[in-house]
Design a protein that fits this description.
Blueprint (H helix, E strand, L loop, with lengths): L5 H4 L18 E6 L3 H11 L4 E6 L2 H10 L4 E5 L7 H11 L4 E6 L4 H8 L6 E4 L4 H28 L19 H8 L5 H14 L3 H8 L4 H11 L22 H7 L1 E7 L2 E6 L5 H11 L2 E6 L2 H11 L2 H12 L23 H8 L2 H17 L3 E6 L4 E7 L2 E8 L4 H12 L10 E9 L2 E12 L2 E10 L2 E2 L10 H11 L4 E7 L5 H12 L6 E5 L4 E2 L3 E5 L8 H9 L5 E4 L5 H12 L3 E7 L3 H10 L4 H7 E13 L4 E4 L3 H7 L10 E4 L9 E12 L2 H8 L4 H10 L5 H10 L5 H14 L1
Parallel strand pairs: 1-2, 1-3, 3-4, 4-5, 7-8, 15-18, 16-21, 16-22, 17-19, 17-20, 20-21
Antiparallel strand pairs: 6-7, 9-10, 9-14, 10-11, 12-13, 13-14, 22-25, 23-24
Length: 749
C-alpha cells in the first residue's frame, strides 16, 4: 500500500523491470481550465507541490488549442464558462483524445453537469465548488492511477493480441439482455419476481449464466428447464457424448470462457461456429461471442451434465477455475461502480423486464452511485430525492438543514428509483405503498448504513435515505458543548448506582451522542455494561453491544429481558418506543440497574406526557427518574468567515428580553470554501433537569406535565434559551440559528 501512489509523484524508472511496461519519460501533465483567474491560482496552489506539469487555460477554445500541441493525461475543467461550457469541452476531449481522463468542477450540480458526468466514460468524476484540497488531490491521484493501469493494460493487450481474442466485450455483458430464460420461467410460473431480481443481481456481479445460479438455489428442476428450452428456443438438440472436441477451436473461444459460461465450440463451417450451450436463449452472450470471434454463432442445446463432463475430460479443473475467476474479475474499476446495489414486484405500467433493464442502464447506475458518494463526501446525514412537477430534486441534509444540490430530469426518475430499490432489496414494481430497506456501503476507512424509505407522492415516489455511521467513535462530554453547570449536573446523575437518565429532543438532536458520552465517562472493567440499539451507531469498547434486527431475530423487549438476565450494572437502550419496553426499563431501574435511554420530546412537559402515554406509573417515575436532558443541535458559525453584525429590532423582539444585553455581540458567517452558507459543524444546546425530592413528590401526586415544568423553572433550571444565550456570548451561534431552533420559547420569554 505504501507504493500504491508513488509512481504518480516520483520518478520510479529504475524500479521498472518489465520489458513490456516501459516507464514514463516525463511527469504527468494536467490541464486546468477555468474562466476565473482566481480559481486557476487556487488550483495552482493545490498542485504546486506535486510532481505534475501544469497547463492553464481560461476558455474551452484555448484548452483545445493547448491539447492539439501538448498531449495531457488529465483535464480538470469548470462547467460554467463563456462560449463553450465545460460539458461541451470534455465531450470534445473524449472524442479527440479518448485516453485523456476528465474531471468536472462546478459550483452547482445542475442537470447538464450531472448528466454529462454520468454518461458512460464522459467524466471520471465531478467535484463541487468549493472543493476540499486533500479530496481534490486524492481524486486526481486516483484518476492518474486509473490512467496508468489502462496504459499498462493497452500495452499488455497489444502484446497478447496475436494469441487471444478480445475479451473486453465480455466485461460489458448486461444481465438485462441475458434473462430471456429467466423471464420464460417467470411466465410459466416456475419463478417469482423476487427470485428473478436476485438472479438479475448476481448475474450482473459475476456474468455467469442464469442456469448456474438456478443450480445453486435448486429453485427449478433442471430437467424441466431442458425440456422447456427444447420446446421453446427452436434450435437443435445435440448429444455431446458422441462429440469429440477439436482442440483448435480453443483458439476461438478460450477454456476459461467455456468454463464460466457453460459452452463448448463444436465445429466451424465457413464463417459459422456451432456452439453447444446449456441456455440457447442467452442472446446477450451469443451477440458478444459473435463480435468477439467474428463468426456467426449457431446455438445448439446441450445437457448441463454433458457439457460439464466434456470440459472435465479436456481441461484441468483447478487451472480453469482460476482462469475463469480472473476473467470474471477482469473489468476495469470505476469509482461510481464501487457500491453494490440490489431489488423486487407489483402491477405497474412497465413490465418487469423493462424495470430491470432501466435499472441497469449506465446513467442510472452512475447517477445513483454519484448521489451517494457526494453525500458521503459532504458529510450529509440524509439524502432526499423528491420528484417535483418539472424535475427531480436531490437534497442533502448537512448540519441538520436541507440543501438542494442536484436536479435530475423527470425521464430518469423511474430508473433512478428502481436502482435504489435494487440496492435496498425492495419491491421494484410496487409504487402504491411505502417501503423500507437498508444497504451497507463499505469504503476504505469507513462503513455506513443507509436506511431507505420510499413514500408515494402525486409526482412519483419520494426517497429518503438516512446515513448512519457504523460504530463511529463516541464523543466525550467535553466535546458536546455542555456548560459548566450542566456538566456538573450530568456527572452527578451518571454517578448514581441506579435509576433512569433520559435524553430527549427532536430527531437528529444528538440524544444518543449524549448517552454514549456519559457511558464512556463511567466505563471501566469494574462495571458490566450492555447497549441495545438498531443499529449500533457508536462503538463502546468495554460494553457488550447488541444490534436489534427489525427483519429477523428477537424483538427489542425480548433482547432487553435477556440482557437483564446477565446482570448489567448499566444498560443503554436506543429509545423507549413501546409500553412493554418502557415498563421493563422502569422495572430494571427500580431493581438496581442504571438505565440510559432516549425519548422523543421537545420539552420537560412533553417528556412527562410521553412517559404517561407509554404507561409509566407515577410512583415508578418518581422513584426511578434521575435526570432528563432536553437538547438541540445548533449550527456553529464558521470561524473562517465569521463577522460581527447588529441585531435587528425584529430579531430582538422575537428572541426576547434575555438577548437585550448591550454587551452582547452577534456574529454570522459570510459563506466561504470551508462552510455551508456560513455554518460549519454543530454545537449542543442543553437543558438539564435533576429530579430532586420536591419534583419526586409532585410526580408521585400525579401533577400535570405543565405544572411539573413550571415547578422545574422555579427550582432554577437553566433553560435551552439560557444555554443558547451563553453560546451566543461565546460567538458560537448566530441569532438566526437560535430563532430557527427556539423561536417559540423566545416568544414565551
Amino acid at each position: 500500500m505504501e507504493k500504491r501512489y508513488t509512481a504518480l509523484f516520483v520518478d520510479t524508472a529504475d524500479e521498472d523491470k518489465s520489458p513490456l511496461l516501459p516507464s514514463r519519460k516525463r511527469p504527468y501533465r494536467l490541464l486546468l481550465v477555468d474562466d476565473d483567474p482566481g480559481i486557476l491560482a487556487a488550483l495552482r496552489r493545490v498542485f504546486q507541490r506535486e510532481n505534475y506539469e501544469l497547463l492553464f487555460a481560461q476558455s474551452a477554445k484555448e484548452a483545445l488549442s493547448l491539447l492539439e500541441n501538448s498531449p495531457v493525461e488529465l483535464v480538470v475543467s469548470d462547467f460554467k464558462m463563456p462560449g463553450m461550457n465545460g460539458g461541451e469541452l470534455l465531450g470534445h476531449v473524449r472524442e479527440l483524445w479518448p485516453e485523456t481522463l476528465r474531471i468536472m468542477l462546478t459550483g452547482y450540480a445542475n442537470t447538464e453537469v450531472v448528466m454529462g458526468s454520468m454518461k458512460e466514460g464522459a467524466v471520471y468524476r465531478f467535484n463541487l465548488k468549493p472543493w476540499d484540497d486533500d479530496d481534490l488531490r486524492l481524486t486526481v491521484a486516483l484518476a492518474l492511477e486509473q490512467y496508468e493501469l489502462r496504459r499498462q493494460s493497452r500495452i499488455l493487450a497489444q502484446e497478447s493480441a496475436k494469441h487471444a481474442i478480445n475479451l473486453e466485450l465480455l466485461n460489458n455483458l448486461d444481465a438485462s439482455k441475458r434473462n430471456r430464460l429467466v423471464m420464460l420461467l417467470h411466465r410459466k410460473g416456475l419463478l417469482n419476481a423476487r427470485q428473478i431480481q436476485h438472479l438479475h443481481k448476481v448475474m450482473q456481479a459475476d456474468r455467469a449464466p442464469a442456469l448456474s445460479h438456478l443450480l445453486q438455489h435448486d429453485w427449478v428442476d433442471l430437467q424441466t428447464v431442458h425440456i422447456l428450452l427444447r420446446d421453446e428456443c427452436l434450435c437443435d438438440d445435440v448429444d455431446l457424448r458422441e462429440i469429440r472436441v477439436d482442440p483448435s477451436l480453443w483458439a476461438i473461444i478460450p477454456y476459461a470462457l467455456c468454463i464460466q459460461q457453460w459452452i463448448l465450440p463444436l465445429r466451424t463451417v465457413g464463417r459459422r461456429l456451432d456452439l453447444a450451450m446449456v441456455d440457447p436463449m442467452d442472446t446477450g452472450l451469443i451477440d458478444v461471442l459473435g463480435r468477439m470471434t467474428g463468426y456467426d454463432i449457431r446455438p445448439l442445446l446441450c445437457d448441463i451434465g454433458q457439457v460439464q463432463d466434456k470440459l472435465a475430460e479436456t481441461l484441468d479443473k483447478t487451472e480453469l477455475h482460476a482462469a475463469g475467476q480472473a476473467m470474471a474479475n477482469g473489468s476495469e474499476d470505476d469509482p461510481y461502480d464501487g457500491i453494490e446495489l440490489v431489488f423486487d414486484e407489483e402491477e405497474s405500467p412497465e413490465s418487469l423486464e423493462q424495470l430491470l433493464g432501466s435499472s441497469a442502464d449506465p446513467p442510472a447506475i452512475r447517477l445513483v452511485n454519484a448521489i451517494i458518494l457526494e453525500a458521503l463526501r459532504l458529510g450529509a446525514s440524509a439524502i432526499h430525492i423528491h420528484p417535483r412537477a418539472h424535475h427531480v430534486a436531490v437534497s442533502y441534509r448537512i448540519d441538520g438543514v436541507l440543501h438542494d444540490k442536484i436536479q435530475i430530469p423527470l425521464a430518469l426518475m423511474i430508473s433512478v428509483v428502481s436502482r435504489i430499490k435494487i440496492m435496498a432489496e425492495l419491491d421494484i414494481t410496487q409504487r402504491r405503498h411505502p417501503q423500507n430497506g437498508r444497504i451497507t456501503v463499505k469504503m476504505p476507512m469507513r462503513i455506513v448504513d443507509l436506511d431507505i424509505t420510499l413514500l408515494p407522492t402525486i409526482h412519483g415516489e419520494k426517497v429518503a435515505i438516512q446515513i448512519l455511521e457504523r460504530q463511529a467513535a463516541a464523543r466525550s462530554l467535553d466535546e458536546l458543548g455542555l456548560s459548566s453547570c450542566n456538566t456538573i449536573a450530568m456527572l452527578h446523575a451518571i454517578n448514581q448506582p441506579q435509576g433512569i437518565i433520559l435524553a430527549a429532543g427532536l430527531a437528529d438532536s444528538g440524544k444518543l451522542s449524549m448517552l454514549y458520552a456519559l457511558l464512556n465517562h463511567i466505563s471501566s472493567a469494574e462495571k458490566h455494561t450492555i447497549t441495545l440499539d438498531n443499529p449500533v451507531k457508536y462503538y463502546a469498547d468495554q460494553a457488550g453491544q447488541v444490534t436489534v434486527n427489525k427483519r429477523s431475530g428477537p424483538d427489542f423487549a425480548s433482547l432487553f429481558q435477556a440482557a437483564l438476565q446477565q446482570g448489567p450494572d448499566v444498560i443503554l437502550l436506543g429509545e423507549l418506543r413501546t409500553k412493554e419496553v418502557s415498563a421493563a426499563a422502569f422495572e430494571a431501574a427500580l431493581s438496581g440497574h442504571l438505565v440510559l435511554s432516549t425519548l422523543r420530546g421537545h420539552s420537560i412537559a412533553a417528556v412527562m406526557a410521553r412517559l404517561a402515554e407509554l404507561g409509566a406509573r407515577s410512583l415508578a417515575m418518581a422513584s426511578a427518574l434521575q435526570a432528563i436532558v432536553i437538547q438541540r443541535l445548533a449550527r456553529k458559525v464558521c470561524p473562517h468567515c465569521r463577522e460581527e453584525v447588529p441585531l435587528s429590532p425584529e430579531q430582538a423582539e422575537r428572541l426576547g428580553k434575555e438577548f437585550l444585553d448591550p454587551q452582547l455581540r452577534f456574529f454570522r458567517g459570510r459563506g466561504c470554501r470551508y462552510c455551508q452558507q456560513g455554518y460549519k459543524g454543530r454545537v449542543g444546546l442543553h437543558e438539564v433537569l435533576l429530579i430532586n425530592d420536591t419534583l419526586r413528590e409532585a410526580i408521585a401526586q400525579g401533577t400535570s406535565p405543565w405544572r411539573l415544568e413550571a415547578l422545574a423553572r422555579e427550582q432554577g433550571v437553566s433553560t435551552l434559551l439560557d444555554d443558547a444565550c451563553e453560546k451566543l456570548r461565546q460567538g458560537l451561534v448566530s441569532p438566526d440559528e437560535i430563532l430557527r431552533l427556539l423561536s417559540p420559547q423566545g416568544l414565551k420569554g
